[in-house]
Recover the amino acids of this structure.
């Protein structure tokens, strides 16, 4: 009986790589890490060792940096500020484009991401906050929580405003599809450069390792620091019922998300660097998109928040 149970779990874990909705939602807050389902995440890290085999080139490293920035913007600007907080408006087409672009970051679908983030704001640094370093430890808040069985499912009722769109449910359900296509395109790009621009001294495998594996792993841990370090290190400017902090270094790494205490004090704003000197590259990117007519109705920081800041 035990062997049948283990075999069934193995089958479901592997099936969940391809169809996340095939797994029955777990509602008992199961904190066991599903190592079978986590295997691709671990493999992404191990693949970075291939840099010692494929070497490096200026073009490969440049592509890795550009793809880090592009996908970080998709996560911070859209997964977070749009899908989680509705801090601005856009068209159905653009929300799909950036949901797909965000999916290349290999951080699950926009619906899963936003649903869990909304729970975080309701329960921040309380027992039910699944990535609180205060309650569950630094390792768990950084990456353990999303590898657990209890946090695998998408709570669609938490994002009913967006889960009504079939294309977003598709990206959420088959969240492996976009990363695989993205990796293949990067590999093909490297092959074309090798064929037509040999002077760049790159190839398909080198471009795949730097442009996909290395860039994505750095993107992982840059994003994860907001759950862990931004609730541990930094300054509490605004009074709050949690341990959210402002951290300049994390703001640079995450294109503005490091102004986390600002964000928790007033989460509805498209801007997280409230003061002029609080660098928020995501917000600057959103302003540019607004001028281009791609998004509109950016929610700004209310005057009362600035008055509160000056009174502290």
């Amino acid at each position: 009986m035990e062997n049948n149970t283990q075999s069934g779990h193995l089958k479901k874990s592997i099936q969940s790589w391809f169809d996340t909705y095939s797994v029955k939602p777990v509602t008992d807050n199961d904190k066991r890490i599903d190592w079978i389902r986590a295997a691709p995440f671990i493999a992404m890290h191990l693949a970075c060792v291939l840099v010692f085999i494929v070497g490096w080139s200026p073009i490969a490293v440049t592509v890795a940096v550009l793809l880090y920035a592009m996908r970080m913007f998709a996560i911070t600007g859209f997964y977070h500020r749009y899908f989680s907080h509705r801090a601005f408006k856009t068209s159905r087409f653009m929300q799909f484009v950036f949901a797909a672009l965000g999916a290349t970051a290999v951080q699950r679908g926009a619906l899963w991401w936003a649903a869990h983030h909304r729970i975080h704001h309701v329960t921040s640094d309380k027992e039910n906050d699944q990535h609180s370093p205060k309650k569950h430890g630094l390792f768990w808040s950084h990456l353990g929580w999303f590898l657990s069985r209890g946090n695998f499912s998408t709570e669609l009722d938490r994002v009913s405003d967006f889960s009504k769109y079939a294309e977003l449910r598709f990206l959420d359900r088959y969240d492996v599809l976009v990363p695989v296509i993205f990796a293949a395109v990067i590999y093909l790009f490297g092959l074309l450069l090798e064929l037509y621009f040999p002077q760049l001294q790159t190839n398909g495998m080198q471009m795949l390792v730097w442009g996909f594996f290395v860039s994505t792993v750095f993107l992982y841990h840059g994003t994860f620091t907001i759950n862990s370090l931004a609730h541990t290190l930094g300054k509490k400017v605004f009074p709050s019922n949690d341990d959210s902090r402002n951290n300049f270094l994390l703001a640079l790494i995450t294109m503005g998300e490091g102004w986390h205490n600002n964000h928790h004090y007033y989460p509805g704003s498209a801007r997280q660097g409230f003061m002029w000197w609080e660098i928020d590259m995501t917000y600057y990117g959103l302003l540019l998109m607004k001028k281009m007519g791609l998004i509109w109705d950016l929610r700004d920081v209310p005057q009362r928040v600035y008055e509160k800041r000056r009174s502290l």
Remarks:
- The radius of gyration is 20 Å.
- The chain has a mean pLDDT of 93.
